[in-house]
Automatic annotation (TrEMBL):
The keyword DNA-binding does not apply. Keywords: Repeat, WD repeat. GO terms for biological process: hematopoietic progenitor cell differentiation. SMART domains: WD40. Signal peptide: none annotated. This is WD repeat domain 38. PROSITE patterns: WD_REPEATS_1, WD_REPEATS_2, WD_REPEATS_REGION.
Length: 303
């Protein structure tokens, strides 16, 4: 058992890797930066979570989940974060004290950018201050992914039924479902909005779609992964998209042309999650490699 602070060591291609999760089979499943990039939260197969400062070390270790932690997210103000687990619960935590404030049975989770609402699956619920506001019914199968629009006025959900639903949160209760995006031929495994309001979806069909939700338009389809897409993340300016397949490869795409501008092959093992730092200078990759995480500089604009 590794109970000390994670070490930092050189990684391939200018990347850095850090370990620290417990267990022989404890790969990092998800990661998230706090607003401002001062803290990095990682969630693991060993059922725990850790928070640290890049370049400094481990701040604290979380415990409480009884199954692998699948998702972790910070609120916009950084005061709270949430974790979801294969034990079918979501936990809300106080960042300053690393204290669990609330627990509820759920699947996937996403925060609204204004830090007032939280969406959770697998059946689809909308929470506020720990209380359920609405049950969102419409998918024909379990909800696997979700993300709020930058304005917090709509919510996208992806399902095993291979569709994406867009929910209008400005309407009076009950929440009105107002459009459905179709085009994938597999489970919608991940969703991500850009700062400008574009929506990216990754699927078990090995493709990524970038949509303009307001017009239901498919702008570009990204092909190149040889396995299903596990995680996607827009750069802060929305010009690039990083994607991790269920493989050793992470790709970075030009969102305007749809071309892959970089393929990162130095990942230690299967990449479960990827995220840009808030300033866009680094890309964090969480691979299946006994709790290690890697950071790498994303490619520069070729022009």
């Amino acid at each position: 058992e590794n109970s000390g602070a994670p070490g930092t060591l050189p990684g391939p291609g200018g990347a850095k890797a850090a370990g620290g999760h417990r267990g022989e089979g404890g790969p990092v499943k998800a990661s998230a930066f706090s607003p401002g990039g001062q803290r990095l939260l990682t969630a693991s197969e060993d059922g725990g979570g850790m928070a640290g400062r890049p370049g400094v070390g481990l701040l604290w270790r979380l415990s409480g989940h009884t199954g692998p932690v699948k998702v972790c997210r910070f609120f916009l103000d950084g005061r709270l974060f949430a974790t979801t687990s294969c034990d079918y619960t979501i936990r809300l935590w106080d960042t300053a004290e690393a204290k669990c404030l609330h627990q509820r049975s759920v699947g996937t989770v996403s925060f609204s950018p204004d830090s007032t609402q939280l969406a959770s699956g697998a059946q689809g619920s909308l929470l506020q201050s720990g209380q359920m506001l609405q049950h969102l019914g419409g998918h024909r199968d379990s909800v696997q992914s979700s993300d709020f629009a930058p304005s917090s006025d709509s919510l996208a959900t992806g399902s095993w039924d291979s569709t994406i639903s867009i929910w209008d949160l400005q309407m009076a209760t009950p929440v009105i479902f107002h459009q459905e995006l179709e085009g994938h031929s597999g489970n919608i495994s991940c969703l991500c909005y850009s700062a400008s309001g574009l929506l990216a979806s990754g699927s078990w069909d090995k493709t990524i779609h970038i949509w303009k939700p307001s017009t239901r338009s498919l702008l570009v389809q990204l092909k190149g992964h040889v396995t299903w897409v596990k995680s996607i993340a827009f750069s802060p300016d929305g010009s690039q998209l990083a994607s991790a397949g269920y493989s050793h490869i992470v790709k970075v795409w030009d969102c305007n042309t749809g071309k892959c501008i970089e393929t990162l092959k130095g990942v230690l093992d299967v990449a479960h999650a990827c995220a840009f730092t808030p300033d866009g200078k680094l890309l964090v990759i969480a691979p299946w490699a006994k709790g290690r995480r890697q950071t790498a500089a994303p490619p520069r604009d070729p022009w």
